[in-house]
Specification:
alpha+beta
Length: 307
């Protein structure tokens, strides 16, 4: 386990900058966000310092972003953070870190997307991003393949969430999950794997005046089936109209089976986010209290939509 929040403060970050990037060391510095894997400090008006802190996996995610983002994020319709500098492990901070551009706006777990236009904006981003993945693309962690690969763990998590009273209408949620898994038994994903963002939940998308304007945190970028990213429709968008506009605008046209699988991944993400919210209430590193409300809204959208 890496350094935790209490080990990282503004003085330490500024000292890192003075050691490795002295030309940026006197810029204004303030805490931007505490994520599950990384924390981010705003540096001046246009930059951000990104440091792993709560998980061992965060090191690899930082290195992946530094390597892949410059190659994959050209000509996207939304703002994304672009790596600018590399931070090397040192005696002060023995982990890799980076300096990226700062994406202006508010994370959607605090400022949700509003209005049906969000569906078209999200579809435009994923249409542009979901290009065939190169053969050496990164492998995803539990999110690029089949629902059946995570089914046992998910059913256990769903049972626990139900017993603790954390989720609404657990029987309907289980029915949506079972329907999504059943789609995999006869549906074969034939086209090449596409590039996936791999982590499109509210804290990783940015809004300005309630409109979707940016996407951040590409640490889970990988190759796989588009259904995982398409789950973002139910995770991020506010209502059935915006979800419908997303489905109409996303290209290429895909079958109902993929949308059913996307609903299953949305259930998986929402339940996981609720447990992360509970971890935040207990004060655990990386726990995010603000993830709970968006996850519950996502589940309510799903159970109120016909399968």
């Amino acid at each position: 386990m890496g350094l935790h929040q209490e080990n990282i403060d503004a003085d330490m970050v500024r000292t890192l900058l003075r050691e490795q990037h002295p030309d940026l060391a006197e810029e204004a510095l303030s805490l931007g966000a505490l994520g599950w894997d990384n924390q981010m400090w705003r540096l001046g008006e246009h930059l951000a310092v990104r440091l792993p802190w709560a998980t061992d996996a965060a090191d690899d995610l930082i290195l992946k972003e530094n390597s892949w983002l410059p190659r994959l994020t050209r000509n996207l319709p939304l703002a994304v953070p672009m790596p600018q500098r590399v931070g090397k492990p040192s005696e002060l901070f023995p982990r890799p870190w980076s300096i990226t551009t700062w994406v202006v706006g508010e994370p959607a777990d605090k400022a949700p997307i509003q209005g049906s236009a969000g569906g078209e904006a999200l579809a435009a981003f994923l249409t542009a991003f979901h290009q065939p993945a190169p053969s050496n693309a990164p492998v995803g962690r539990d999110r690029a393949g089949a629902l059946v690969e995570v089914a046992d763990r998910f059913v256990g998590s769903l049972s626990s969430a139900s017993d603790l009273g954390l989720i609404p209408e657990p029987r309907k949620i289980r029915a949506i999950w079972d329907d999504a898994v059943s789609a995999e038994y006869w549906f074969l994903w034939a086209p090449p794997a596409v590039r996936l963002h791999g982590d499109l939940y509210p804290a990783n998308v940015i809004t300005t005046d309630s409109a979707l304007t940016g996407v951040i945190d590409f640490g889970d970028l990988c190759a796989g089936n588009p259904a995982f990213d398409l789950a973002a429709a139910w995770i991020l968008l506010p209502d059935r109209d915006s979800i419908g506009r997303f489905k109409e605008a996303y290209c290429p046209s895909i079958g109902d089976e993929t949308w059913r699988r996307a609903r299953g991944w949305a259930i998986w993400r929402a339940v996981a986010s609720i447990f992360i919210s509970e971890a935040g209430k207990r004060g655990e590193p990386g726990g995010k209290v603000t993830w709970g409300a968006p996850a519950l809204r996502s589940l309510r959208r799903l159970v109120n939509e016909p399968i």
